[in-house]
TrEMBL record:
Protein name per UniProt: Predicted dehydrogenase
Membrane spanning residue stretches: none
Chain coiled-coil ranges: none
Species per Swiss-Prot/TrEMBL record: Lentzea albidocapillata
Pfam families referenced in this protein's UniProt entry, alphabetically: GFO_IDH_MocA (PF01408), GFO_IDH_MocA_C3 (PF22725)
Keywords: Oxidoreductase
GO terms for MF: nucleotide binding; oxidoreductase activity
Segments forming domain Gfo/Idh/MocA-like oxidoreductase N-terminal: 5-117
Span of domain GFO/IDH/MocA-like oxidoreductase: 161-240
Amino acid sequence: MDEQLRVGLVGAGPWAQMIHGPGIANHPGTTLTGVWARRPEAAASLAGSFGAEPFEDYSAMLSTVDAVAFCVPPGVQGPMAIEAARAGKHLVLEKPIAENAEVATELVAAVEEAGVASLVVLTRRYAPETKQMLAQLHRTGGWTGADSRWISGALLDGPFSNSPWRHDKGALDDVGPHAFDLLDAALGEITDVLAANVTDTGLWQLILQHAGGATSTVSLCLSLPMQPPFADFTVFGTEGHRTLTNRDTPALECFTNLLDDFVAMVDSGITTHECDVRRGLHLQRIIDLARRKAGA
């Protein structure tokens, strides 16, 4: 781009401090113009770290930027992202993209009507090792099933242990979108949740149906004291099995790769991407269906 994309950041929590703030401020195609957060002192602190302007009025920030990156709970993000899209701003969205599929559908409609670019922060999809494995799977074919596990004690200790929405929604909403996205990308579109159960300890276990007949299983938990935490992803079929356990690419580098795509989309006028807002709606529908199947 001839000029840097002016980006406003919504949210000033741990993830915004570790990933969004430095990622946007240091990317050659973007500049962190402003920061808005529910706590003005948090917005001022994060903005000050990167030479941005803190805002107490969200609408005022919208008037100064080309795009908005969100790092807030889904119930907060949905309505604010709809407002931003209707104001013609491009969007970098956290997952899940909204509180439920109804709000997510409204967000998709706002994005499409405005003709703006959108990307969802499905972190591992922007890692080179993930792209390499998915490309290999698609070349080979013959995959009939998969298993994915995302297990940690993130709600027990660490930077996200005091996150109210994560305690409320649990692993299904927090790490579920990552697992569903990778399974969907590897085996084909997830068309149904065949079974779902959640225990009193917050362990989610699901069986998913994919277009073409493949099935997959998922285990998700944020409240088991695993040290270190682990996430793995295994696909199997007539050609044997393939496992993705390599997470060498740091989250900040994955976010930088996302911004590469985002800046290119805005510069070229492209508004579709495999990880755009429509992907977010698809994942939201899986979350909502799983919750209904589990009676949670």
